[in-house]
Design brief:
203 residues; 3-stranded parallel beta sheet; 33% helix; binds iron/sulfur cluster
Length: 203
């Protein structure tokens, strides 16, 4: 599967042609960063509302702070100084679903817990995303029995699956980076969400 390239959300104006330097061999090639820096120095930056909104959403993810089983220990390690999830803007764990936009389902979901997970999801404001962390959350894992939901996607829509038992913190960080790519390439809807979608709790 080919990786989808995420483009820089900023677009700069085309620059007028420059005079050729006297000796090209002595001048470093002009990079995209050079062009962006020059544009910023002029104080003018062009982009779209969609790019700005997606950029800000992707880099300020607030996960819901809860865990269900052993995978949650790895999720907690992701927040520590060793892995430092704050480098990706996603370290602000919120204790209330009303302040969170990412649900990381870390651990197996029992049938008894399933309605609670769905209620938490419904209480999160739109837009919201879900990561299924580990084999148990993704497909039930080794617990192929009557007590465990065989994949949390049976009760909430999942955006990214992180494999492993348990996945290491690097794997969860990779999953969050994949989610950021997905957010950056998504279409935004301005204005209030349609009533029917709000009732379903869809993102
Ligand atoms: S995937 Fe493995 S580590 Fe994670 S909750 Fe299941 S048994 Fe525990």
């Amino acid at each position: 599967m080919t990786e989808k390239k995420v483009e820089n959300p900023f677009r700069t104006l085309a620059q007028p042609a420059r005079e050729a330097p006297p000796d090209p061999g002595l001048v470093a090639p002009r990079t995209e960063q050079d062009a962006l820096r020059e544009e910023l120095e002029r104080g003018v930056l062009f982009t779209t509302v969609e790019s700005m909104v997606n950029w800000s959403r992707a880099n300020s993810i607030w996960p819901l702070g809860f865990g269900l089983a052993c995978c949650a220990i790895e999720m907690m390690a992701t927040l520590g100084p060793g892995y430092d999830l704050s480098r990706f803007g996603a370290e602000v764990m919120r204790p209330s679903p009303r302040q969170a936009d990412l649900m990381i389902v870390a651990g197996r979901v029992s049938l008894k817990m399933a309605p609670v997970v769905r209620l938490l999801y419904d209480q999160m404001p739109d837009p919201k995303w879900v990561i299924a962390m580990g084999a148990c959350a993704s497909c039930g894992g080794v617990f192929n029995n009557y007590a465990i939901v065989q994949g949390v996607d049976k009760i909430v829509p999942v955006d990214v699956y992180v494999p492993g038992c348990p996945p290491r913190p690097e794997a969860l960080i990779h999953g969050i980076m994949k989610l950021q790519e997905k957010i950056l390439s998504s279409r935004i809807e301005l204005g209030p969400a349609p009533r029917a979608r709000r009732k379903q709790g869809a993102a």
